[in-house]
């Protein structure tokens, strides 16, 4: 998954991961608005409980609400996240299917191989998210209590015990209109990232992708809440920050300005400080001192 900070803040938040047999658990808390893009894996399923949203967000163009979201199979996703709490898991297909068959006598529901879905926000869903978060917290408080081998396997099955009853009752809907707009954003992102150090124009992007300027504008507003020009500028600011954080000894701020196509150094410094709450020179100096 790729994270892009969209609003000014000194830090993004915190994240806790637990690797179990066939299962990755993650508990996160974000303190800034983020763009998160990525893709599921064909042999894995992703389920994410969202809570404590402090603002509006989007998932592939759909309104981002509290509750459970499923990313099924090798599906790309684009999230605009407000500050919020998130409990997620990546589950091997064989593990989940085997559990469904042995514990419930069921085959995997068909929707689990069909896109990105809002599963729901019932009290049972919220309770399941809280229970899985509590398991993660318990592990971090005392990781030796779980032990290895059978203990870790038991924890994985405890998570499935909580999750699977929610999945069995899922009813989800597809929104083709927003899905189409999401596809435009995804293709535009890929085109921009392939040429991000070039002086791209919106008219060029529209021509290459075969979409109108209006369709591009509406798609970005629906999916990301930004216009395409602002998104391109934010991407370049984030890439510039990554270069500065890498702390190559020979790197200077002017090198980053030249690489990412910022023609006015003073304007770059101003936009950079607005986004990251420090000057680019301060980022470089701070990271070199910590290295």
Main attributes of the structure:
single chain; alpha+beta; Jelly Rolls; Arc Repressor Mutant, subunit A; 2 domains; 6-stranded antiparallel β-sheet; 5-stranded antiparallel β-sheet; 11 strands; globular
How would you portray this structure in words?
The protein is α+β, with helices and mostly antiparallel strands and 291 residues long. It folds into two domains: 2-174, Jelly Rolls, CATH 2.60.120; 177-290, Arc Repressor Mutant, subunit A (Orthogonal Bundle). Helices cover 47% and strands 22% of the residues. The strands form two sheets. The protein has a six-stranded antiparallel beta sheet with strand order 2-3-10-5-8-11. It has a five-stranded antiparallel beta sheet with strand order 1-4-9-6-7. The model is unreliable at 171-175 (pLDDT under 50).
Largest sheet, spatial ordering of strands: 2-3-10-5-8-11
Percent in strands: 15-25%
Q: Can you identify the CATH superfamily of the largest domain?
A: Jelly Rolls
CATH architecture of the largest domain: Sandwich
Low-confidence stretches: 171-175
Give the CATH class of the largest domain: Mainly Beta
**Arithmetic mean of pLDDT:** 86
Count of the separate structural domains: 2
Our Rg estimate from Cα atoms comes to 21 Å
Shape: globular
What's this, in brief?
This protein is α+β, with helices and mostly antiparallel strands.
SSE diagram, text form:
Layout: E1 2-5, E2 13-20, E3 23-30, E4 34-39, E5 44-51, E6 58-59, E7 62-63, E8 67-72, E9 76-81, E10 84-92, H1 93-104, E11 115-120, H2 123-141, H3 150-168, H4 176-194, H5 202-209, H6 213-223, H7 228-245, H8 253-259, H9 265-276, H10 280-290
Antiparallel strand pairs: 1-4, 2-3, 3-10, 4-9, 5-8, 5-10, 6-7, 6-9, 8-11
Helix pairs in contact: 2-3, 4-6
